[in-house]
Write a structure and sequence with these properties.
The protein is mostly helical. It is 56% helix and 5% strand. The protein has one domain. It is built from four helices and two strands. Strands 1-2 form a two-stranded antiparallel sheet.
């Protein structure tokens, strides 16, 4: 599979994973001691984006250091019940994630259509 398609496939998979994490945060908005989680795309997609470490001072991708990309306990201050889920922030993340998912699906469709068109002309 061409590199661009594999990156888009991975992007779609990661937005799906992030959707699950965000909805879990929303579902636990009233759960005492619950810490909000998120998925960091820059850590997860580092290698797929063609990042090359050419200097020892470069930051390593999560897949090289063993990270999953899921980060517990975002920087927001907890409420009195030690829960740090902010509904407005989670809804904003959900909207951003849905837009990123749609963009990935649209780009993947366009790429497949380009291959189909190329096959028709040969």
């Amino acid at each position: 599979m061409p590199d661009g398609m594999s990156v888009l496939e991975r992007l779609i998979q990661q937005t799906t994973a992030r959707q699950s994490v965000i909805t879990s945060n929303i579902a636990n908005v009233d759960t005492p001691n619950y810490r909000a989680k998120d998925v960091k795309f820059d850590q997860v997609l580092g290698n797929e984006m063609g990042l090359v470490i050419t200097d020892p001072k470069h930051i390593r991708a999560a897949s090289e250091v063993g990270g999953s990309g899921i980060v517990a306990g975002t920087e927001t201050q907890p409420w009195a019940d030690k829960n740090n889920v902010e509904m407005d922030l989670e809804v904003a993340k959900l909207t951003e994630n849905a837009m990123l998912f749609e963009a990935g699906v649209t780009l993947l469709k366009k790429k497949i259509q380009m291959f189909k068109n190329a096959l028709k002309t040969t």
